[in-house]
Design goal:
It is a single chain. A hairpin with a 5-residue loop joins strand 3 and strand 4. The chain is of the alpha+beta class and about 100 residues long. The protein has one helix and four strands; from the N terminus they run H-E-E-E-E. Keywords: Membrane, Transmembrane, Transmembrane helix. It holds the Pfam family DUF6476. InterPro entries: DUF6476 (IPR045519).
Protein backbone atom coordinates (compact mmCIF):
# COMPACT_ATOMS: atom_id res chain seq x y z
CA UNK A 1 0.00 0.00 0.00
CA UNK A 2 1.44 3.35 -1.03
CA UNK A 3 0.59 6.60 0.55
CA UNK A 4 -0.30 9.24 -2.02
CA UNK A 5 2.05 12.21 -1.82
CA UNK A 6 0.60 15.66 -1.56
CA UNK A 7 1.04 17.67 -4.72
CA UNK A 8 3.34 20.68 -4.46
CA UNK A 9 1.29 23.67 -3.29
CA UNK A 10 0.91 26.34 -5.92
CA UNK A 11 2.00 29.91 -5.18
CA UNK A 12 -0.76 32.45 -5.62
CA UNK A 13 -0.13 35.61 -7.67
CA UNK A 14 -0.60 37.76 -4.57
CA UNK A 15 2.05 35.79 -2.70
CA UNK A 16 4.48 36.13 -5.64
CA UNK A 17 3.91 39.88 -5.70
CA UNK A 18 4.41 40.14 -1.94
CA UNK A 19 7.65 38.14 -2.10
CA UNK A 20 9.01 40.35 -4.89
CA UNK A 21 8.06 43.52 -3.02
CA UNK A 22 9.83 42.31 0.13
CA UNK A 23 12.96 41.49 -1.90
CA UNK A 24 12.83 44.92 -3.58
CA UNK A 25 12.43 46.67 -0.21
CA UNK A 26 15.39 44.72 1.19
CA UNK A 27 17.57 45.70 -1.77
CA UNK A 28 16.55 49.37 -1.47
CA UNK A 29 17.32 49.39 2.26
CA UNK A 30 20.74 47.80 1.74
CA UNK A 31 21.50 50.31 -1.01
CA UNK A 32 20.40 53.21 1.20
CA UNK A 33 22.63 52.09 4.06
CA UNK A 34 25.61 51.72 1.71
CA UNK A 35 25.04 55.15 0.14
CA UNK A 36 24.67 56.77 3.58
CA UNK A 37 27.89 55.13 4.77
CA UNK A 38 29.75 56.23 1.64
CA UNK A 39 28.54 59.83 2.00
CA UNK A 40 29.64 59.94 5.64
CA UNK A 41 33.08 58.61 4.74
CA UNK A 42 33.44 61.10 1.88
CA UNK A 43 32.30 64.00 4.06
CA UNK A 44 34.61 63.15 6.96
CA UNK A 45 37.66 62.38 4.82
CA UNK A 46 38.05 65.96 3.54
CA UNK A 47 39.54 67.59 6.62
CA UNK A 48 41.42 70.48 5.01
CA UNK A 49 39.86 73.82 5.94
CA UNK A 50 39.04 76.21 3.13
CA UNK A 51 40.09 79.80 3.56
CA UNK A 52 38.19 82.71 2.07
CA UNK A 53 39.84 84.05 -1.08
CA UNK A 54 40.73 87.45 0.40
CA UNK A 55 42.87 85.99 3.21
CA UNK A 56 46.58 85.37 2.72
CA UNK A 57 48.50 83.63 5.47
CA UNK A 58 52.03 84.64 6.50
CA UNK A 59 54.87 82.77 4.81
CA UNK A 60 55.30 79.19 5.95
CA UNK A 61 51.95 78.98 7.76
CA UNK A 62 49.17 76.63 6.80
CA UNK A 63 45.67 76.52 8.24
CA UNK A 64 44.59 73.78 10.61
CA UNK A 65 41.17 75.24 11.47
CA UNK A 66 38.99 78.15 10.38
CA UNK A 67 36.25 79.83 12.40
CA UNK A 68 33.95 82.46 10.96
CA UNK A 69 32.44 85.15 13.20
CA UNK A 70 30.03 87.97 12.44
CA UNK A 71 32.73 90.31 11.09
CA UNK A 72 35.97 88.32 11.45
CA UNK A 73 37.74 85.09 10.53
CA UNK A 74 39.94 83.20 12.98
CA UNK A 75 42.57 80.89 11.50
CA UNK A 76 44.55 78.44 13.62
CA UNK A 77 47.89 77.78 11.96
CA UNK A 78 50.25 74.84 12.25
CA UNK A 79 52.87 77.03 13.94
CA UNK A 80 50.62 77.49 17.02
CA UNK A 81 49.14 80.89 16.24
CA UNK A 82 45.60 82.19 16.01
CA UNK A 83 45.27 84.83 13.31
CA UNK A 84 42.16 87.01 13.34
CA UNK A 85 41.27 88.68 10.05
CA UNK A 86 38.71 91.37 9.26
CA UNK A 87 35.84 89.93 7.25
CA UNK A 88 35.29 92.93 4.99
CA UNK A 89 38.88 93.92 4.22
CA UNK A 90 40.74 90.65 4.75
CA UNK A 91 43.44 92.45 6.76
CA UNK A 92 45.06 90.86 9.80
CA UNK A 93 43.50 92.31 12.95
CA UNK A 94 45.25 90.34 15.66
CA UNK A 95 47.74 87.53 16.12
CA UNK A 96 47.78 85.36 19.25
CA UNK A 97 50.67 82.97 19.92
CA UNK A 98 49.89 79.71 21.70
CA UNK A 99 52.34 77.89 23.93
Amino acid sequence: MTIPSDPEPQETPQLKLLRRLVMLLTAVMIGGVLITFALIVIRLSDRTPTLPKDITLPNGASAQAVTIGSNWYAVVTDDNRILIFDKTTGKLRQSVSLE
